[in-house]
């Protein structure tokens, strides 16, 4: 009896709405991460006129808060799903909403509220952003591992591709706005990140899933002897 081989179901994979949600969340979170890592110190120097020692502290704050957020959010999401209080899909949708909408609100607040006369208001916003950002790990990243276990490598590569595209988009946006000497450069940058986060959250809320997809076993093809 000829063994059957399975090939990656590219058409079904690329047209899957849960996959679209994962990719959109990857892009949104990649854009936010790239913006914070690359341009947060510049923003605080230009817009808030902070001294170097405080710039270092404020830059560290959201990433330190992420550690705390992930430590709490991950086990809690697992607990409510394991005990049957919520399905895994519903638990991840709540976590993703917490991450996407929370990050969107924090980014929008960060774009408009802190000023050079009140730079201290940036610190609690950055801490809030870092804490809620952790929801994405319990949201779209969980879906990445569960909707098609045999193709986790393929989906991870696509996620990395969209994250890299987000990094390029973030850098290109800041560079373009700087060259044009736009007076509202930073509200535009952080506002764009906020809109992307909210859009990703809405899409995942409607179409995200952790259920194993019908195409996850691949397409059978008979091998030749």
Number of helices: 8
Morphology: globular
Mean pLDDT: 89
Strand proportion, as a percent range, falls in under 5%
Secondary structure: helix percent: over 70%
Strand order of the largest sheet: 1-2
Main beta-sheet annotation? 2 strands, antiparallel
Which structural class matches the secondary elements? Answer: mainly alpha
Distance between the termini: 10 Å
Unreliably modeled segments: none
| Total strands | 2
The Rg value, from CA coordinates, equals: 20 Å
- Could you give the order of the helices and strands? EHHHHHHHHE
Keywords: Membrane, Transmembrane, Transmembrane helix
GO molecular function, one term: transmembrane transporter activity
Protein name: Membrane transporter
Subcellular location: Membrane
């Amino acid at each position: 009896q000829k063994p059957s081989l399975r090939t990656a179901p590219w058409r079904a994979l690329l047209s899957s709405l849960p996959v679209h949600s994962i990719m959109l969340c990857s892009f949104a979170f990649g854009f936010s991460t790239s913006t914070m890592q690359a341009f947060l110190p510049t923003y605080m120097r230009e817009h808030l006129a902070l001294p170097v020692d405080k710039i270092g502290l404020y830059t560290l704050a959201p990433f330190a808060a992420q550690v705390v957020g992930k430590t709490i959010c991950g086990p809690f999401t697992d607990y409510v799903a394991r005990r049957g209080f919520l399905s895994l899909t519903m638990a991840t949708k709540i976590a993703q909403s917490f991450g996407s909408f929370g990050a969107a609100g924090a980014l929008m607040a960060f774009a408009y509220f802190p000023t050079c006369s009140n730079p201290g208001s940036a610190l609690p916003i950055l801490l809030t952003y870092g804490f809620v950002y952790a929801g994405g790990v319990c949201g779209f990243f969980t879906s990445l591992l569960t909707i098609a276990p045999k193709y986790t490598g393929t989906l991870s590569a696509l996620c990395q591709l969209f994250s890299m595209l987000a990094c390029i988009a973030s850098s290109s946006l800041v560079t373009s706005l700087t060259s044009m000497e736009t007076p509202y450069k930073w509200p535009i940058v952080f506002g764009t990140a906020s809109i992307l986060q909210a859009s990703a959250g809405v899409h995942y809320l409607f179409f995200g899933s952790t259920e194993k997809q019908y195409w996850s076993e691949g397409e059978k093809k008979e091998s030749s002897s």
